[in-house]
Automatic annotation (TrEMBL):
Record-annotated Flagellar motor switch protein FliN-like C-terminal domain positions: 255-324
UniProt similarity note: Belongs to the FliM family.
This protein's UniProt keywords: Bacterial flagellum, Cell membrane, Cell projection, Chemotaxis, Cilium, Flagellar rotation, Flagellum, Membrane
Cell compartments where the protein resides: Bacterial flagellum basal body; Cell membrane
Name of the protein in its database record: Flagellar motor switch protein FliM
A Pfam family the protein falls into: FliM
Database matches in InterPro entries: CheC-like_sf, Flag_FliM, FliN-like_C, SpoA-like_sf
Gene label: fliM
NCBIfam families per the UniProt record, alphabetical: fliM_switch (TIGR01397)
Topology of this chain in the membrane: Peripheral membrane protein
């Protein structure tokens, strides 16, 4: 419950109005009670808290960055994508808000139940198609007459985009998005009941001089099993979660089995290319490393230890002397 602090002047004015009869105390009390009543529309049920909306926004800001990289690489041009808004509304309202003819990518998000819709503004979709076919990225709107080749090209492009959706949600849950249908008429798309609450994430996209909107519609029933994971409290718990003994042991086992390249650098030398071509068996190449100085031991090409050269049972060997401290720079 929020409270407002009144200034001294406001208090004096209120007391003066009550004493002169300009304001009735009973009416004031009644007005305050009436303000406590809040109209609730059951057709527009708000099932997501503000905290959960913020989490969904963060996830799709990451998705926007992934899409920017993906589309820029596929279309070989600079593309800018950013989250414009995240709202919860009835499914029927979402259908009414998008064009009558548009590009609707319907995909499943196994193991979660239900389907998700990625709606692409037709002008943007054709700008992408134009880039794929070697054009400059001009946007047109003739979605009602998609050819089989155009449909196939768009399907292939958006299949890759949808894979990034799963990567963006990876911090919350594992899912395997799979494109199941490409539709152009929203009236033929009935995923949930008209009054079902959905989350709609709108993203602005710019391709060259063409701008448009990408809408992602996620029904509540899809996210219902993972709703608790969308709270900041869950994120904090995961961040400070203590690993179990078996998890720690398994992690150490994997780390110990990791292969590393260890290199003993005996020294360096510079010679001309002609000398290199004329090298024969028995020739000696002088190194810049003094025999009484320690050599560098590199682990995955990073200087890590000082060592000295020796011999163990007729085998050449090196003996570790000390660890190279952080900040050490090689003589290269």
């Amino acid at each position: 419950m929020s409270t407002e602090i009144m200034s001294q002047n406001e208090i004096d004015a209120l007391l003066s109005a009550l004493s002169t009869g300009e304001m009735n105390a009973e009416e004031l009390k009644k007005e305050q009670e009436e303000r406590k009543v809040k109209v609730y529309d059951f057709k527009r049920a708000l099932r997501f808290s503000k905290d959960q909306i913020r989490s969904i926004t963060r996830i799709h800001e990451n998705f926007a960055r992934l899409l920017t990289t993906y589309f820029s690489a596929q279309l070989r041009t600079y593309i800018q994508i950013s989250v414009a808004s995240v709202d919860q509304l009835p499914y029927e309202e979402f259908i009414r808000s998008i064009p009558k003819m548009t590009i609707l990518n319907v995909f499943e998000v196994t193991p979660l139940e239900g389907r998700v819709v990625l709606e692409i503004n037709p002008t943007i979709a054709y700008a992408m198609l134009d880039r794929q076919l070697g054009g400059k990225g001009s946007g047109v709107n003739k979605v009602d007459s998609l050819t089989e080749i155009e449909t196939r090209l768009m399907t292939t492009l958006f299949e890759g985009a949808i894979e990034n959706f799963g990567e963006a949600w990876d911090t919350i849950t594992e899912m395997q998005p799979k494109l199941s249908d490409l539709e152009v008429n929203p009236q033929f798309l009935q995923m949930v009941s008209p009054n079902e609450t959905v989350i709609v994430i709108s993203m602005n996209i710019t391709i060259g001089e063409v701008s448009g909107v990408i809408n992602i519609c996620i029904p509540y029933v899809v996210l219902e099993p993972i709703i608790p994971k969308l709270s900041a409290h869950y994120w904090m718990e995961e961040k400070h979660k203590v690993r179990q003994a078996h998890e720690q042991e398994s992690l150490e086992k994997v780390i110990r089995a990791t292969s590393l390249i260890v290199t003993a650098e005996l020294g360096k030398s510079e010679i001309s290319f002609s000398d290199l071509l004329n090298i024969n068996i028995g020739d000696v190449i002088p190194l810049d490393q003094k025999i009484d100085k320690p050599i560098n031991i590199k682990v995955d090409n990073k200087p890590s230890y000082f060592a000295q050269v020796g011999q163990v049972k007729k085998h050449l060997a090196i003996q570790i002397m000390e660890k190279i401290k952080e900040g050490y720079e090689d003589d290269e």
